[in-house]
Amino acid sequence: MSEISxxxxxxxxxxxxxxQKSPVLTNETMHYCPGCSHGVIHKIIAEVIEEMGIQEDTIxxxxxxxxxxxxxxxxxxxxxxxxxxxxxxxxxxxxxxxxKYVFTYQGDGDLAAIGTAETLHAVNRGENMVMIxxxxxxxxMTGGQMxxxxxxxxxxxxxxxGRDLELNGYPLKxxxxxxxxxxxxxxxxxxxxxxxxxxxxxxxxxxAFENAxxxxxxxxxxxxxxxxxxxxxxxxASNKWMEENMFPFYPLGDLKDGEKLRPEDLxxxxx
Length: 271
What we know:
By secondary structure, the protein is α/β, with parallel strands linked by helices. It has helices at about 1-10, 40-50, 85-95, 110-115, 115-125, 165-170, 175-180, 195-215, 230, 235-250, and strands at about 60, 75-80, 100-105, 130-135, 140, 145, 185-190, 220-225, 255. The strands form two sheets. A seven-stranded mixed sheet has the order 2-1-3-4-8-7-9, sandwiched between helices. The longest helix has 20 residues, at about 195-215. The mean pLDDT is about 95.
């Protein structure tokens, strides 16, 4: 037995480790459906927090939705917000704790529907926070209903024949809207369906947290994701459907990279 233990010690050396779980992740078993993108995004966030050494200085805010139990999986300080209100709560947290790294973690039904006003105004004010937006084009937690981001013709529980623009209106490209606001410093759209995509998303989230330290405005990271249970597809089929249908409508890449508009760049009627 001792010989086996000694052999394992020789194998399990830092230079031989290919991958390991971040200590910022808890040992809780995630409740997400097999193939869900949330677990991958959680892993990325935990790794960024670990690598930046900011675990004790990070505060997450998650509202109602599939992300509601994020506090069980990422070992940082968390606050739970009412549906859609994470940006408003994060604003208060950031202003009371300006030295902390504050981020929201929200789905499309939350951020782009009931929370639209909070989202727009927080970004427009240039609140010094990170906003992570998981867009799978559907209400995943509550039964697969149509969301603001559901695309034309997409089948959901409430659009069984596909989203009809005449009846249901147009899909909301809220990320493009936010990129136009003066308070936005960094706005990007990424995904996590392949190892290469995961690396790009991790780089984007890392940059967003670094921006928070620079206090240059709001950093917004959209992650185009799958909901295989809501879409009624296998994980593999979901990834393929996302690539063929969502990426053309929600193209990946940076939409804005800079800093918020400076007060001196606008006229001041008080002078």
